[in-house]
Amino acid sequence: MSLFDPVVFTPASVPARAARKEREARAAGRHIERLPFTIRRVETEADLLKAVQIRHAAYARHVPDFARSLAQPEAADYESDTIVLLAESKLDGSALGSTRIRSNLLRPLGVEESVTLPDWLQGRRLVEATRLGIDEGRVGRMVKVALVKACFMYCEDNAIDFSVATGRPPVDRQYSQMLFTDVFPEQGLVPLRHVGNIPHRVMAFEIASFEERYRTANHPMLKFFFDTHHPDIDIGPVEQPPAIVLARPGFASGIAGQTLQAREFAAA
User: Fold this and answer.
1) Distance of alpha carbon 110 from alpha carbon 51, whole angstroms
2) In the prediction, which pLDDT does 30 show?
3) First-to-last CA distance in the chain?
4) Taking the model in full, what pTM does it have?
5) What's the rounded Cα separation, in Å, for the pair 256 and 73?
6) Cα–Cα distance, 8 to 96 (Å, whole number)
7) Which CATH class is domain 14-234?
8) Are 178 and 129 a contacting pair, CB within 8 Å?
9) Which one of 33, 58, 84, 97 is CB 3.0 to 4.6 Å from 42, fit for a cystine?
10) Distances 146 to 82, 135, 141 between C-alpha atoms, Å
11) Domains of the chain: which residue ranges?
């Protein structure tokens, strides 16, 4: 059974295809590293349930009260502007990690239910990665970094300008280490509706300058992100980046009562 009907777009745009071809060309001359796991897009009901299982287990360790709301798939998992990534062990196929990526190409981000983003993010192509869940074993840190790389690849293919992330302490420090910057540097932690009103730090990362900034900083993850090809990370086919739909005025205060339309299961 296929989880999602294929997303129907016209042929992929020139920028999206160019980004994918450029990345593949770079990979051809770089060191190839095989990982002990794979990362791919969720495509079936069974895939999604595996992602939900690792998501729920991870949140239960840190925020057990909120985790109770994550025991089953959420409506957002089925949205047409959203993909769910799943990391699976090559040894036994078990779920090792998952995250959900949503763009603002069709509607505002989840974080915008609670805050109004500053001018420098308005009218820009954005994604927000949420529901990050990682196995607590030794391989967990590598899975997390590989999921970040998969998100970056998705951003390249969809001509994304900034990735927006929210993190509660101490997770927010990991985003700082990856060179995310504060969206509200004077405001501190912000309670966010889409993560159970738990206070989070809102941060953003410019995609276009990713490699330049990592090389300038001689970042410890530079080789992993830019000098190594990982065939085990597969985010699926290139899709056309649709035209951006700008946020509606008053969205942050008015979305709470809106109903989201989920994609239906479809027979393969």
Assistant:
1) 19
2) 83
3) 5
4) 0.82
5) 19
6) 30
7) alpha beta
8) no
9) 84
10) 19, 13, 9
11) 14-234
Tens digit of each residue's pLDDT (9 = 90 or more) over 117-135 = 999 999 999 999 999 999 9
CA angle 105, 86, 69 (to 5 degrees): 80
The two tokens of residue 100 are: 């959900």
Across the chain, mean pLDDT equals 84
CA 188 to chain CA centroid, Å, is 23
Give the rounded distance of the alpha carbon of 127 from its chain centre. 7
Closest CA to 100 of 68, 54, 137: 54
Q: Rounded to whole angstroms, what are the CA distances from 74 to 45, 51, 106?
A: 12, 11, 19
Report how far residue 234's alpha carbon sits from residue 128's, in angstroms, rounded to the nearest whole number. 19
Are the beta carbons of 107 and 245 closer than 8 angstroms? yes
